Amino acid sequence: MKKLVIAEKPSVARDIAKILGAKTKGEGCLEGNGYIVTWAIGHLVALCDPEEYDIKYKRWDMRTLPLLPEEMKLKPIKKTYQQYRIIKNLLADPSVTSVICATDAGREGELIFRYIYNLARCNKPIQRLWISSLTDEAIREGFENLKDGQAFYPLYLSAKCRSESDWLVGINGTRAYTVKYKSLLTIGRVQTPTLAILVKREAEIEAFVPQNYWELSGDFGSYKGIWIDRETKESRIDSREKAESLEKKVLKQEGFVRDIESKKMVKKPPLLYDLTELQRDANKRYGYTAERTLSIAQGLYEKRKAITYPRTDSKYLSKDLVKGLGKKIENLREGQYKEFCEYLLKLEKLPISKRIVDDSKVSDHHAIIPTDKKGDISKFSQEEKNIFHLIAQRFLAVFFPDYIYNSTTVITEVMEEWFKTTGQQVLQIGWQGLYRDEEENKDNIPKVKKGQKVFVEETNIEDKQTQPPKRYTEAALLSAMEHAGKLVEDEELREQLKESGIGTPATRASIIERLIEVGYVVREGKNLIPTEKGKNLIAIVPEELSSPEMTGKWERALNRIAKGKMDEKKFMEGIERFTAFLVKDAYERNPKVIFEREKKGTAKKGSKGASTAATQEKLGNCPACKAGEILEGSKNYYCSNYKQGCKFGLFKQDKLMARYKKKMSKTIAKQLIQKGEALLKGVVSPKGGKFDAKIKLKQLETGYWGWTFDFEKKEKAD
């Protein structure tokens, strides 16, 4: 009798097989010592496509919506069918008496396994391997303490509801809005409210009207201060004339230190990392996208065995981990962490608090920390070193004392005008010692006494302007997604709100990438900016779909299903009602929004033509109407004022260009638009000769635009 172990990936299966002694290679598996170890390749099974329920659904037609199957059907994924067939046969093998689910220990891992198990119509007993790291010790201990698979059935129901609700909202919404607006408009239960967060911020930026103001600073020799209003305590001066009047009043005058106020400030160590916080810090410090950070962390978990399971939403450890913390610190002792590790190892006892260990705040997995394995960090790639450094640094920091400093405010009075100076004096560096260099630790409090006389040696007026809200970086958007659109600075309050976030730590990166892929968002440096298409989409969908709060409520419900506290049927009934409402709203709503027509099939997953970031690049001012900007479409270069009747357009597949074996590239189009002319090199004539030719922008008799040769063509011999 044998036990069948199903892992999520081949690499993990090999690690497990090594521990179990399954050394004999079979087709798509490893066998030995009473075990057969096989693997999925991510998802092997998916929900059926609409036309697989009925051929009539192959055509996108509003009359066939809403599509609400009585029972959602599964199918093997064609690309990986061979591996599915292998697992199906192993599940049916009479010698296999039980199955061990060893996919990733989380919601998606549970879904991957259960979909395979259900489609194969298996009913053999299930045990669950539930581990947080892939070290040999963790795998061995996990198999010694296998859990009853039935205990994870609610987690599967939560994953199933997530999968089916995404299908219902996505399929019906995408078809309804695409048919209505004759442009491929992908809709997502999580994707659309995430886009709405970006669109709302962009609207705030566009509506922002900057205001000029001035600030006056005074130099008192050993320190400087900023003028403040005695009543409002504001430093803004609303006119330059007033600033100059104040400057004239105080320059070269004597004053005195009116007041010194010091407050003792205490900053506790940060909490340990969950995935979202790690992605946020990696974006801030190294500019990594959320998707890149997840990929690096997954490699550190699976291949290097250096960190624990990264797809976690917890920032706490469970009590059973306390006994092994000393070994983890010892493993980090060499290199850049030596000083900090030695401090902790000399302590009689590690300072464990509820901010570090709290079983009530650990659900599927604990926080991301280094494993017990002592790895050779010198062999890591630079990206791996960077992410591991963040995790190791944070892991050590939580055990250090508070950072304590005096925050001091000095008020200097000159000719009855007040100047404010602020500074800090570090009393206890604590955990900040891991993050600060010596220069940052220097005190900057003015060495003055109350009543001390001073002299205004110099003054300076600075012209300033109010700034619009900042665009979202990935770090900021991840925060907003985690808290259903709310930007929350306080770390402990963030923890209370995260259960109602948009998506999960494991999915947020892919949601951001999907928004970029379908042309709703562009990435400019670290900023994420919605395109015209993205803004238009949010203008036409109902608030119930674009509301981060609504999606947050759904996510909270999915969490309750996973804990066995909510009936999954009730959740899906609500999703079906919402889907029907979405289709009805798309059919009845008539906002005056026009989407650019796209070439059929351009916005399929992975396509570069899907009304992409290129639609937002401005190629120059419109030569026709003089008011619009020229943008790139899927077929042409067109004026942003086309809705107002501007007929400017240059076709990419220009027939005359094609005749001479050239294309209307973006570079040529830019030159024509900005300079009125462009140089075509290596033009091939119908006779076979080659020549260079200058071309000029030209308005055609039809009112549209094109080009013409600027001079007589001179052919060259090949």
Tally of separate helices: 21
Taking the sheet with the most strands, its summary is:
7 strands, mixed
Question: Using only CA atoms, what is the Rg?
Answer: 32 Å
The chain-level structural class is alpha+beta
Helix content: 25-40%
Contiguous low-pLDDT stretches (5 residues minimum) are 600-615, 712-718
Number of domains: 5
The fraction of residues in strands falls at 15-25%
Number of distinct beta strands: 25
Q: Determine the N-to-C terminus distance.
A: 76 Å
Write down the overall mean pLDDT. Answer: 89
Examine the coordinates and then state which fold CATH places here, giving the name of the CATH topology of the largest domain.
Topoisomerase I, domain 2
Order of strands side by side in the largest beta sheet?
2-3-4-1-7-8-9
CATH architectural category of the largest domain: Orthogonal Bundle
Fourth-tier CATH superfamily name of the largest domain: Topoisomerase I, domain 2
Entry keywords:
single chain, Topoisomerase I, domain 2, metal ion binding, disordered C terminus, DNA topoisomerase, EC 5.6.2.1, topoisomerase, Rossmann fold, 718 residues, metal-binding, alpha+beta, Topoisomerase I, domain 3, 35% helix, globular
